[in-house]
């Protein structure tokens, strides 16, 4: 793709645009699929809600850490530049490899499968229809982002609105259909949770998987107006909106199904609408859930290619990735490469005996939490290395807040490696395959 290598990102995104990306990436279809798995990990409604609130606290702690990092070091590379500054370019390049081959592309592929499942119910395309819909979504949204950042961000705002609408509809239906006080859903036969620590740990893995994606705002700091002030606003406002939506949605689920009923529901949102308002409303919700999946995909594609761009600017042998289309305001070559790798993963998931979503989640999780832990630790490194540096935003309650975030990442790294099975080993093997790239990059320098 022809573009101007001397061009670069321009600060065109407002706080509203940034919040739309954060909320649009986080509030995906996970909230309509993972609550039954969380319910199976606890023995009381109170413990169920505590997990969701704890997930929100961890998300907030992480957002506060990223707000300090992003406001101090605004740029297109996000974690790539933080890791490179803290540990050296080798770790940064290895992360870029992992994000490009495992983390980001795997996340896009996983959400593409969720979208494909819903889309194939509405527009059947045969036995492999879900995979076909997934491919169409990846190609279409990648093309949209290549067309231009302006078009992509407008689409993102629209998708985010529909994603929030889907969750609000579920919240309203749950509260209207329950006919009981909100606090009543927290009262059940178990005074306290008797679930094992292992089960609670797995429940937290599912909760934080649903909360995942808030860190994508770090990749927009070079395109955000006044990032020193606005990045913290984007992360904090986005976090508050997401936590509020998730807490009220889960109160609605408990009000309708109860904890035991929630454990045995598959499509929790559609089932709730079917009970409260009939079949036609369930179809409408399926359409909106499809839009939430597209919202997550578009936001992830928008932010994901920025790390390829940053890598291309730093590694001479990959300079083709470091080109920026001044016309569309996008890293066109990086988007093309990201789309191609994602399509390979979609194909691999389609061949995994119909377990595309679970295969991608297992593939992503250990690598993701490893680098999230390393990123959290960079905040301690930077504070120690340059104590006199002026910071536009400081993490409150330092060092407790980043310590909480890092300990959570370490626990999730352990849980995902232990329970994810073969897929986790494949993801770690792909990470190890990036070591030759690091060596080649060092020789290139």
Descriptive report:
There is one protein chain. This protein is an all-alpha fold and 445 residues long. The protein is 73% helix and 0% strand. It is built from 16 helices and no strands. Helix 5 (89-122) packs across helix 6 (129-147), helix 6 crosses helix 11 and helix 11 packs across helix 12 (332-350). It starts with 14 loop residues before the first helix and ends with a helix.
Question: What's the short story on this structure?
Answer:
The protein has helices spanning 15-26, 35-39, 45-72, 79-87, 89-122, 129-147, 149-178, 197-211, 227-263, 268-277, 279-314, 332-350, 356-385, 400-419, 422-432, 435-444. The protein has 445 residues and is mostly helical.
